[in-house]
Design goal:
Elements (H helix, E strand, L loop, with lengths): L2 H12 L8 H20 L7 E2 L6 E2 L1 H17 L4 E4 L4 E2 L6 E8 L1 H5 L6 E8 L2 E9 L4 E6 L4 E3 L2 E2 L12 E4 L5 H14 L5 E3 L4 H9 L5 E5 L3 H14 L2 E5 L8 E5 L1 H11 L1
Parallel strand pairs: 3-5, 11-12, 11-13
Antiparallel strand pairs: 1-2, 3-4, 5-6, 6-7, 7-8, 8-9, 9-10, 13-15, 14-15
Helix pairs in contact: 2-3, 6-7
């Protein structure tokens, strides 16, 4: 057992019997529950794969199984909280709080057996995201954040790269499932590439944001993201020291988000907005 797993086990042992999980513990437990189900199916045959918005926008039995398990756990532990999840699970809140869940971010990667997918869970209140977990089951990496309390990876504090020179900054982004939107996004990339070191496209926005928070890429932007794509990741970025801004829609591109070091965000924002 590594040191981080041992620390989590020690915290669990110290918790008095019957003491309820706090919100961050619950989010991590839910993300790991979904992640375990996904891992069980990852090397098996594909099941019940369907298209959603376009033929390239896919959902599988793995997505729905992960979401169902997470939904049951959250309903048992926080019955008064609301829920918004990618595959359709939703109910109103009686508490003023809402869980935002992506049970499998990076479905296409998952179906192609590419190792870039995750489970993303955030808890929102009237001030925005309060708790965030992005769990990468293949690497056993769990990124966590609480508003005002910093960001961590497997219990250890993380921080952003702090890069301040565009020509040395690696930028992560993503593209739409719509061919027309991808064409417009490609035009934006032609403005970004000459200025920054390079572009990376992993195919999972929540994971991109977590990696930006950990300094594995320097910044991230994407248009057309949904609440479940970014609710956890943007809190991770803010907690780790990145500035996060909303990208307003344009004539050809939908709303989006950008997260970057303060020294870089102005120039990147101008290029992509």
């Amino acid at each position: 057992m590594d040191r981080c797993r041992g620390a989590r086990a020690d915290r669990a042992r110290r918790r008095p019997q019957g003491d309820p999980l706090n919100d961050l513990e619950l989010a991590e437990r839910a993300a790991r529950l979904g992640g375990d189900l996904l891992l069980e199916r990852f090397h098996g045959p594909l099941k019940e794969v369907h298209s959603k918005s376009t033929v390239t926008d896919l959902v599988s039995e793995a997505d729905t199984a992960s979401e169902a398990a997470i939904k049951r756990l959250l309903a048992d532990e926080r019955p008064d909280d609301g829920l918004l999840a990618e595959e359709g699970s939703a109910h109103d809140s009686a508490s003023g709080r809402r869980w935002v869940v992506d049970p499998l971010d990076g479905t296409v990667n998952y179906l192609y057996r590419l190792p870039a997918w995750c489970v993303s869970i955030a808890l929102e209140d009237e001030q925005g995201s309060a708790v965030a977990v992005v769990h990468d089951p293949l690497r056993d990496e769990t990124f966590t954040a609480e508003r005002g309390a910093g960001a961590r990876l497997n219990g250890e504090r993380i921080q952003v790269s702090g890069e301040d020179r565009p020509e040395r900054a690696l930028i992560a982004t993503g593209f739409s499932y719509s061919a027309d939107l991808r064409a417009a996004q490609a035009e934006v990339v032609t403005r970004v590439l000459p200025v920054f070191r390079d572009i990376r496209r992993a195919g999972a926005a929540a994971l991109d944001l977590a990696w930006a928070a950990a300094g594995r890429v320097d910044a991230f932007y994407e248009r057309g993201v949904k609440p479940w794509d970014i609710a956890a990741g943007t809190l991770l970025c803010q907690a780790a020291g990145l500035e996060v801004r909303e990208l307003e829609p344009t004539d050809s591109l939908p709303r989006g988000v950008i997260a970057a070091p303060p020294a870089l965000i102005g120039e990147l924002f101008e290029l992509v907005s």
